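User: Hi! I'm working on a homework problem where we have to compare a predicted structure to a textbook description. Could you give me the structure for the chain below?
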Amino acid sequence: MNTSCNQSFFEKVYAVVELIPYGRVTSYGAIAEYLGSRGSARMVGWAMNKSITGKHNVPAHRVVNRNGMLTGKYHFGGPDIMRQLLENEGIKIEDDIIQNFEEVFWDPSM
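Assistant: Happy to help. Predicted structure tokens:
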């Protein structure tokens, strides 16, 4: 795996994540598609995981799976932190799934 290539991709991911408005969410796949890397949703997830433990301070809690599930919740230092961060922004969550997902979804290509 080419680390410099991944690092460049991760930097692009972080730049998109920084654009997600307060109180909105997007998906790993939407970010990958916006960056011209359709099918690289998992790599976006790796970037989000690294952002939490690394030097990047991006709102990674605003990135969820394509169904609005909080699949990355265990990477925040506890199973409830991601949910709490989203709820603090007014997003309603039930059973780790964002309610009214279509309404709070932010498409980076729009």
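For your comparison, note the following. The chain has a mean pLDDT of 92. The beta strands are 26-27, 63-64, 93-94, 97-98. Good luck with the assignment!
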